[in-house]
Amino acid sequence: MNYETFFESAVGFTPYEYQVALAKSSSFTGILNVPTGMGKTDAIITSWIWHRHFASPEIVATTPRRLVYCLPFRALVTQTAQRIEKILHHIGMEKEIRLSVLMGGDIDPDWDEYPEWEQVIVGTQDQLLSRALNRGYTMSRYRWPIAFGLFNSDVLWVYDEVQ
pTM of the entire structure? Predict the structure, then answer.
Protein backbone atom coordinates (compact mmCIF):
# COMPACT_ATOMS: atom_id res chain seq x y z
CA MET A 1 0.00 0.00 0.00
CA ASN A 2 1.24 3.50 -0.76
CA TYR A 3 0.48 6.66 1.20
CA GLU A 4 -2.02 7.97 -1.31
CA THR A 5 -4.15 4.81 -0.98
CA PHE A 6 -3.80 4.88 2.80
CA PHE A 7 -4.82 8.55 2.96
CA GLU A 8 -7.85 7.98 0.76
CA SER A 9 -9.03 5.07 2.91
CA ALA A 10 -8.56 7.21 6.04
CA VAL A 11 -10.26 10.42 4.95
CA GLY A 12 -12.26 9.60 1.83
CA PHE A 13 -10.52 11.74 -0.79
CA THR A 14 -7.18 11.91 -2.57
CA PRO A 15 -4.40 13.85 -0.84
CA TYR A 16 -3.02 17.21 -1.88
CA GLU A 17 0.63 17.40 -2.90
CA TYR A 18 1.71 18.93 0.43
CA GLN A 19 0.03 16.06 2.33
CA VAL A 20 1.98 13.48 0.32
CA ALA A 21 5.20 15.47 0.75
CA LEU A 22 4.69 15.60 4.54
CA ALA A 23 4.17 11.83 4.73
CA LYS A 24 7.20 11.12 2.56
CA SER A 25 9.52 13.43 4.50
CA SER A 26 11.71 11.89 7.16
CA SER A 27 11.04 14.65 9.70
CA PHE A 28 8.07 16.56 11.07
CA THR A 29 9.97 19.66 12.12
CA GLY A 30 8.98 23.00 10.67
CA ILE A 31 5.94 25.08 9.90
CA LEU A 32 3.03 23.82 7.86
CA ASN A 33 1.53 27.02 6.43
CA VAL A 34 -1.74 25.94 4.83
CA PRO A 35 -5.05 27.85 4.68
CA THR A 36 -7.98 26.82 6.86
CA GLY A 37 -10.00 23.96 5.39
CA MET A 38 -7.17 22.48 3.33
CA GLY A 39 -6.67 19.36 5.45
CA LYS A 40 -3.90 20.16 7.93
CA THR A 41 -5.35 17.86 10.58
CA ASP A 42 -5.76 15.05 8.06
CA ALA A 43 -2.21 15.57 6.82
CA ILE A 44 -0.66 15.52 10.29
CA ILE A 45 -2.61 12.56 11.67
CA THR A 46 -2.28 10.34 8.62
CA SER A 47 1.41 11.22 8.20
CA TRP A 48 2.15 10.39 11.83
CA ILE A 49 0.30 7.06 11.55
CA TRP A 50 2.08 6.36 8.26
CA HIS A 51 5.45 7.10 9.89
CA ARG A 52 4.62 4.90 12.91
CA HIS A 53 3.35 1.88 10.98
CA PHE A 54 4.10 1.83 7.26
CA ALA A 55 7.24 3.86 6.52
CA SER A 56 10.76 2.48 6.27
CA PRO A 57 12.11 0.80 9.43
CA GLU A 58 14.42 3.74 10.15
CA ILE A 59 11.52 6.20 10.14
CA VAL A 60 9.24 3.91 12.15
CA ALA A 61 11.95 3.58 14.79
CA THR A 62 12.46 7.34 15.13
CA THR A 63 8.82 8.51 15.04
CA PRO A 64 7.55 9.35 18.55
CA ARG A 65 4.86 7.11 20.05
CA ARG A 66 2.75 10.04 21.28
CA LEU A 67 1.31 12.86 19.20
CA VAL A 68 0.20 15.91 21.19
CA TYR A 69 -2.19 18.18 19.30
CA CYS A 70 -2.35 21.55 21.08
CA LEU A 71 -5.22 23.94 20.34
CA PRO A 72 -6.32 27.26 21.85
CA PHE A 73 -10.08 26.66 22.26
CA ARG A 74 -12.35 23.91 23.55
CA ALA A 75 -14.49 23.97 20.40
CA LEU A 76 -11.42 23.28 18.26
CA VAL A 77 -10.37 20.44 20.57
CA THR A 78 -13.77 18.78 20.26
CA GLN A 79 -13.83 19.19 16.48
CA THR A 80 -10.27 17.89 16.06
CA ALA A 81 -10.82 14.92 18.38
CA GLN A 82 -13.93 13.93 16.42
CA ARG A 83 -11.97 14.13 13.15
CA ILE A 84 -9.14 12.00 14.54
CA GLU A 85 -11.62 9.48 15.93
CA LYS A 86 -13.22 9.19 12.49
CA ILE A 87 -9.83 8.67 10.80
CA LEU A 88 -8.82 5.97 13.30
CA HIS A 89 -12.16 4.24 12.76
CA HIS A 90 -11.86 4.33 8.95
CA ILE A 91 -8.46 2.64 9.03
CA GLY A 92 -9.42 0.23 11.83
CA MET A 93 -6.82 1.46 14.33
CA GLU A 94 -9.07 2.79 17.10
CA LYS A 95 -7.92 -0.04 19.38
CA GLU A 96 -4.22 0.27 18.50
CA ILE A 97 -3.91 4.05 18.85
CA ARG A 98 -5.49 5.62 21.89
CA LEU A 99 -7.18 9.00 21.57
CA SER A 100 -7.27 11.14 24.72
CA VAL A 101 -8.80 14.57 25.27
CA LEU A 102 -7.49 17.05 27.84
CA MET A 103 -9.44 20.26 28.15
CA GLY A 104 -11.00 22.03 31.10
CA GLY A 105 -14.07 20.13 32.24
CA ASP A 106 -13.27 17.10 30.09
CA ILE A 107 -10.06 15.36 31.12
CA ASP A 108 -9.64 11.73 30.09
CA PRO A 109 -9.06 10.25 33.59
CA ASP A 110 -6.67 7.49 32.52
CA TRP A 111 -4.80 9.17 29.67
CA ASP A 112 -1.49 8.53 31.45
CA GLU A 113 -2.09 4.93 32.57
CA TYR A 114 -0.36 3.18 29.65
CA PRO A 115 2.72 5.11 28.54
CA GLU A 116 3.80 2.28 26.24
CA TRP A 117 0.73 2.68 23.98
CA GLU A 118 0.65 4.78 20.88
CA GLN A 119 -1.48 7.77 21.66
CA VAL A 120 -2.88 10.97 20.23
CA ILE A 121 -3.54 13.56 22.92
CA VAL A 122 -5.70 16.49 21.88
CA GLY A 123 -6.17 19.37 24.27
CA THR A 124 -6.16 23.02 25.11
CA GLN A 125 -2.97 24.97 25.68
CA ASP A 126 -3.54 25.41 29.41
CA GLN A 127 -3.94 21.70 30.07
CA LEU A 128 -1.14 20.48 27.80
CA LEU A 129 1.54 23.10 28.36
CA SER A 130 1.11 23.17 32.14
CA ARG A 131 1.73 19.41 32.21
CA ALA A 132 4.78 19.77 29.95
CA LEU A 133 6.13 22.39 32.38
CA ASN A 134 5.66 20.11 35.41
CA ARG A 135 2.73 22.15 36.78
CA GLY A 136 -0.27 20.08 35.65
CA TYR A 137 -3.24 22.40 35.81
CA THR A 138 -6.26 20.76 37.55
CA MET A 139 -4.31 17.65 38.56
CA SER A 140 -2.77 16.40 41.77
CA ARG A 141 0.71 17.75 42.23
CA TYR A 142 1.87 14.22 43.12
CA ARG A 143 1.14 13.22 39.51
CA TRP A 144 2.93 16.19 37.92
CA PRO A 145 6.17 14.26 37.26
CA ILE A 146 4.29 11.54 35.35
CA ALA A 147 2.67 14.06 33.04
CA PHE A 148 5.97 15.92 32.70
CA GLY A 149 7.71 12.75 31.56
CA LEU A 150 4.98 11.79 29.11
CA PHE A 151 4.85 15.23 27.51
CA ASN A 152 8.63 15.59 27.22
CA SER A 153 9.77 12.16 26.10
CA ASP A 154 8.97 10.25 22.91
CA VAL A 155 6.43 12.86 21.82
CA LEU A 156 5.69 14.98 18.77
CA TRP A 157 4.01 18.32 19.50
CA VAL A 158 1.70 20.02 17.01
CA TYR A 159 0.52 23.57 17.68
CA ASP A 160 -2.49 24.35 15.54
CA GLU A 161 -4.40 27.61 15.14
CA VAL A 162 -1.59 29.61 16.70
CA GLN A 163 -2.97 33.08 17.39
Answer: 0.94
